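Quick one, tokens below:
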């Protein structure tokens, strides 16, 4: 199996929503707004790294492709990639 390259892709650094406001779709709306901006600039895909359980679940639920995932000292880290389709 060939490894997947993420070199040169835009990267989503962080989504932060206060705990009391989670599960209201705010994170999804923030991702959607960023995706619209990326598409308008000609980018069709991007990547995101996370090392927390909520982040792992969020990106999987949103349909991101897992590039790699590993566990180190009890912490799971992963890189996800999203390819967008212009509507």
């Amino acid at each position: 199996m060939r490894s997947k390259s993420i070199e040169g892709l835009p990267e989503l650094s962080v989504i932060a929503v206060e705990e009391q406001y989670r599960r209201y779709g705010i994170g999804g709306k923030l991702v959607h707004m960023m995706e619209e901006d990326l598409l308008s600039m000609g980018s069709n895909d991007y990547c995101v790294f996370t090392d927390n359980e909520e982040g792992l679940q969020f990106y999987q639920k949103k349909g991101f492709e897992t590039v790699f995932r590993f566990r180190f000292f009890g912490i799971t880290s992963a890189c996800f990639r999203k390819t967008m389709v212009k509507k």
